[in-house]
Design goal:
It is a single chain. It contains 4 helices and 22 strands. It has a 4-stranded mixed beta sheet with strand order 19-22-20-21, with helices on one face. The chain has a two-stranded antiparallel sheet with strand order 1-18. The protein has a two-stranded antiparallel ribbon with strand order 2-17.
């Protein structure tokens, strides 16, 4: 019985210590965990300040000018002894086709306000000072907690509303333009000797409608403004220190080779290198937004120590800058450059090695950090 008590006591003390330090509950044997803060998450939402609408404009009619031969005197026959008798007539000719006109009514708006909720309401237990005069020796008997409800926070945003949408009306088309000409017609034909009198023509210019006036519409894009909205908060968490434990693959806590290799004395990322970063690191950080990552870069030994140290820092920073350009927060990334201080083979200063062996030292590694 004494031996059992001797072994049970350390186990009990260890379990008590784990509970006091807020370690993961019911951990899996052999599993690894990282400690992550519970962050307030905000989102940028686009608010429509002025809605879209259709704006109209009139495209004028298009004309072309053409020439036309108009008969002004008909052919006739003249007799030698009795000439023909003519009568003058007046004709009206259309020289400009009528066109359509339109009247536009612009959009009319009013200024108003809309109320948006920028932080949701939440409730939680909060501690208060202990009861005065409590004489109980048991911890916790005199503690006071209150369930406090925090109301939502709203914001009034000015917006515009359409009172009268834009429109247009077609007006009565005007009459075309005409020209009056005079011509002679035979009233009494000639007799006896027939003499042919040729017809007479005049060339006039007239404007012909090629394309009628139309109304074209252009959509006026809405005016948007970004507003910050709180979508989650810490009020619903049971953690007392605003941290929680997340399960992580144990191999990610050690340095992993990011198989991107650089040209000599270069920190440029090739298209192949970016594809490897996307596959090995970007996808991991997008799926696991709670983790931070440390990136270390190294060089070979074929330049000065100072140059290689600066080159390795630029290579590590280049990976960080690329991840930031793909949407990863810079606060989730940490980088270091070690130059030629951590070679993976014997190819140090003055050692003759193949290019492939030197390339093994121009490497980049990463590991997951807890936040």
């Amino acid at each position: 019985m004494r031996i059992s008590t001797f072994f049970l006591l350390p186990a009990f003390l260890a379990a008590t210590a784990l509970s006091a330090q807020n370690y993961p509950e019911n951990p899996e044997p052999g599993a690894c965990y990282i400690r992550c803060p519970i962050e307030e998450i905000t989102e940028l939402e686009k608010v429509v300040v002025t809605p879209s609408y259709m704006q109209y404009k009139v495209v004028p009619a298009v004309y072309k000018t053409v020439e036309e031969r108009v008969l002004v005197k008909e052919a006739s026959k003249r007799f030698e002894y009795v000439p023909a008798v003519y009568r003058e007539v007046t004709d009206t000719l259309l020289v400009e086709d009528p066109f359509s006109t339109y009247s536009l009514q612009p959009v009319q708006t009013i200024d108003t306000f809309e109320i948006f909720e920028i932080e949701p309401a939440y409730s939680r237990f909060e501690t208060r000072p202990a009861i005065d005069g409590c004489k109980s020796p048991i911890p916790g008997d005199c503690d006071v907690i209150c369930y406090v409800v925090h109301p939502a926070i709203t914001k009034q945003i000015p917006v515009k509303r359409i009172v009268t949408p834009p429109s247009f009306t077609r007006e009565t088309p005007p009459n075309g333009r005409y020209r009056t000409i005079k011509r002679q017609v035979i009233e009494t034909p000639a007799t006896y000797l027939e003499v042919e009198i040729p017809a007479e023509y005049v060339t006039i210019q007239k404007r012909v409608l090629e394309r009628d006036a139309i109304v074209d519409s252009v959509e006026v894009t809405p005016v948007m403004r970004e507003e910050v909205f709180l979508v989650t908060d810490r009020g619903g968490s049971n953690a007392s220190d605003w941290y929680e434990w997340k399960k992580i693959e144990c191999s990610l806590l050690d340095f992993n080779l990011l198989p991107i290799y650089y040209a000599r004395n270069s920190d440029a990322l090739s298209a192949r290198a970016k594809a490897i970063i996307d596959e090995k690191l970007l996808n991991l950080m997008l799926k696991r937004p709670e983790i931070r990552v440390e990136i270390n870069s190294h060089t070979d030994a074929r330049a000065s120590d100072d140059f290689n140290l600066d080159l390795s820092k630029r290579r590590a920073k280049g990976v960080v800058d690329y991840l930031v350009s793909r949407g990863i927060k810079r606060s989730r990334l940490e980088y270091h450059g070690y130059g030629e201080a951590q070679l993976v083979n014997h190819c140090g200063n003055g050692v003759e090695c193949a290019e492939q062996q030197h390339a093994q030292n121009r490497r980049t590694e990463f590991r997951v950090l807890s936040r």
